[in-house]
Amino acid sequence: MSVKPFTDLSKMCVHTITTKPWNLVEAARHFSAAGVKGITVWRDALTGREIAESRRLITDYGLEIVSLCRGGFFPSVDATKRKAAIADNRKVIEEAQALGAPLIVLVCGSDPAQPLETSRQQIAEGIAAILPDAVAAGVKLAIEPLHPMYADSRSAINTLAQANDMAMEIRSPNLGVAVDVYHLWWDPALEGEISRCGENECLFAFHICDWNTPTVDILNDRAIMGEGCIPVRKIRGWVEAAGFRGFNEVEIFSTKYWQADQSQYLQKIIQAYKENS
Ligand code: ZN
Known about the structure:
Elements: E1 12-15, H1 24-34, E2 38-42, H2 51-60, E3 64-72, H3 79-99, E4 103-107, H4 116-137, E5 140-143, H5 160-170, E6 175-180, H6 181-184, H7 190-200, E7 203-208, E8 210-211, E9 222-223, H8 232-241, E10 248-250, H9 255-258, H10 262-276
Parallel strand pairs: 1-2, 1-10, 2-3, 3-4, 4-5, 5-6, 6-7, 7-10
Antiparallel strand pairs: 8-9
Helix pairs in contact: 3-4, 5-7, 7-8
The structure holds zinc ion (ZN).
């Protein structure tokens, strides 16, 4: 099956973290002027302004709010911290509702001081605790599996199979998964697990970027689509075959690109979106 390149930006979304040097106003203005249609807002971009005002500002620029990043970080050996995490996630749900974001992406967390199985159990408990709040607020939650190099402290959910299993176990129309090519491209089971998402109607988000070789920083050295070894378009084909019709969200953490001229960088991303996504 050959996947056609994008000829327009109608399904293109950019995360505010991608152009981190821009504040929310600048990001919305530049994204809109460049023809980008969607924006995913990171919580830090909301500071210093009433959320209702941020919402107005974004929608005035004609942008669709795709999701709020991020909730999660449930596990801890310390019960007080686990409680605080649940309280914070409830706050994220309130923020998403106020912002008009239909989805919250969950970076689930992990505590190196305990076994991964324990962290996974605490993630499941955390999600179950906040799910009724999400349902009441009309907000969906997406479990985002993270690359195994983050299993120590950022997420004990490292494959799409694990995310699907957890979503199926807890089971709610408000709970699904997020597929990020950066985290999942290496997994030989990826195509099958994406199609399983389709069967379960739980594929809520699709994040794109690329993988640098060598990767010099495990957090902030992501590449633009086409610069690395991730077959982004091929994976998009799997995602679309699974019935996904949502936004293609460009999420790039890059110390290198954050130092560049952000307008030129955005143009480079748009070109790569059309040619390599
Ligand atoms: Zn992501």
